[in-house]
Automatic annotation (TrEMBL):
Residues the record lists as binding S-adenosyl-L-methionine: 286, 315, 336, 384
GO annotation, biological process: methylation
Record-given protein name: 23S rRNA (Uracil(1939)-C(5))-methyltransferase RlmD
Lineage: Bacteria, Bacillati, Bacillota, Bacilli, Bacillales
InterPro entries linked to this entry: Methyltranfer_dom, MeTrfase_TrmA_AS, MeTrfase_TrmA_CS, NA-bd_OB-fold, SAM-dependent_MTases_sf, TRAM_dom, U5_MeTrfase_fam
Residue positions of the active site: 411
Amino acid sequence: MSFIVNKNERLNVLVEDLTHDGSGVAKVEGYPLFIPGALPGEEVDIQVGKTLKNYGFGRLINVKKASPDRVDPPCHVFPECGGCQLQHLSYEGQLVQKRKTVRDVMDRIAKLPHVPVHPVKGMDNPWRYRNKSQIPFSEQDGKVVSGFYRSRTHHIVDTDVCIIQSEEADELMSTLKHEMHAFGIDAYDEKAHRGMLRHLIVRKGRATGEIMVVLVTRKKKFPQKEAVVELIKRVVPDVTSIMQNVNDQKTNVIFGDETILLYGKTFIIDSIGPIDFEISARSFYQVNPEQTEVLYGQALEYAQLTGGESVIDAYCGIGTISLFLAQKAKEVYGVEIVPQAIEDAKRNAELNGIDNAHFEAGPAEVVIPKWYADGKRFDVLVVDPPRKGCDEELLKTILEYKPKRVVYVSCNPGTLARDLRILEDGGYRTQEVQPVDMFPHSSHVECVAWLETTL
Ligand code: SAH
């Protein structure tokens, strides 16, 4: 309920801001209205939707005065699909907006208005950057549909093309969709827990061109398996790995426990800079390898390694940053909570002949204090936590032992700013922040921050 605007009322408003998820924000006597599809600087006609005590929503009816940064979204299912939030904003405009988001939290949350936030490092070609697609299949009115889930729902927005993913993923997605009934294969029906094909996963090594296709099926036995393998090979002659994963559970989780090799190898190889990675059907791996190289290059630059340092890589995943750092450091210690990822990290170290990287599975906030208690000392600490930021215990450990330099890689500017404030109060000084655009057309932005102790 609001007393300033009424539901269904038509208004003409000036859009002042953009939220982190891509909605325009206009204020009516200080009361914020969120308007999906509107851009800062625009004059728009809206119809008021839901109103709450402190804010409300508006539906965009007409753009009266468009932003100079407005563009026609090239994708025909934008914005229904929900995968992208900013296709109506020029790429340059997106980068400006993302820098502003970071600047804003550095001022407001970190209280560090003097710390430079550099222009966002973006992509030269911000399309077809994703190296992994996980595409759900379903039946709607007797027809197979595949595409992406509408935001916050389990309704598939049907499409044959996604210009964020590889061309091979497009071709496989549409060919399977249009031809699978002819092979006697139907798509999974989530509600009835019937049908065969649940997900198609396509992974591509950017540097190597190797391609893996995974079909997630409800049952192990599915008709005309061999014919489907031949179909995939016809569509993507360069395919190097075809796998089947069986998931017979009623669940949102994509993968089941059993993975079966149907053709080729069980993994693909990709490289980031000089380091090779072995990626299996379920391995975690960054989805935009071109920008990952930019992100890690920045982390490496801020770490300023000369060859003599002991370095921690906290939240190391499959060791991607650790192996990057190991080339320039005396030794690197990586810690990560998922044991399987640590196994991958160890194998990737071996694959690259790197013997100065050590990995341990466990929570960073437990394992790192243990390393210190064992008498180990570190010069540089790199953290790359999940969206919720660093664990409080980990921040305490950092402040207790004070490694000279901290490099903070973050996928969430809000929690980055919160943690920078805690580290500042404990005696660190943030030197600068470099945002990197890992997900063009989405509202996400990654950052690398460089901190030094004052001691
Ligand atoms: N640096 C890696 C992965 C970063 S994603 C890369 O760039 O590829 C964050 C990682 O933190 C995930 O792999 C997640 O499993 C891990 N993680 C989450 N909580 C953790 C904790 N408490 N301790 C250690 N690792 C954790």
